[in-house]
Amino acid sequence: MTLSRELFEADLTFHCPKCETAAVRKGSWIKSAKVFICQACNTQTRLTYGLKLAIFDAHLHPHSPDSLPAFTGQSRR
């Protein structure tokens, strides 16, 4: 599976795995970034390829409960 080119210029929303603060970034930023640093709690999260796929998939399939939260393996409170 690859990152969808159609979302490179789209604003993608995902949540900090620690404080759940929403972050909005362009798909192209998510594609190239290695680390996300939350502005609210300063948590650093590695943006692995699997996590990037989950973020893109959450926007391609917004009604799929398995795709949210974008950080797979993290439970939202």
- List low-confidence stretches: 70-77
* Biggest β-sheet description: 2 strands, antiparallel
**Helix-strand category:** alpha+beta
Determine the number of helices (DSSP H or I, runs of at least 4 residues). 2
Quick check: average pLDDT? 85
**Strand ordering within the main sheet:** 1-2
Helix content: 10-25%
Gyration radius, in Å: 11 Å
Short overview:
This protein has 77 residues and is α+β, with helices and mostly antiparallel strands. 23% of the residues lie in helices and 21% in strands.
Architecture overview:
With 77 residues, the protein is an alpha+beta fold. The protein has one domain. It is 23% helix and 21% strand. It is built from two helices and four strands, in the order ββαββα. A two-stranded antiparallel ribbon has the order 1-2. A two-stranded antiparallel sheet has the order 3-4. β1 and β2 (22-26) form a beta hairpin. It is globular. It starts with 10 loop residues before the first strand and ends in a 17-residue tail after the last helix. Mean pLDDT is 85; it is low at 70-77.
What's the helix and strand layout?
Blueprint (H helix, E strand, L loop, with lengths): L10 E5 L6 E5 H6 L2 E3 L6 E3 L2 H12 L17
Antiparallel strand pairs: 1-2, 3-4
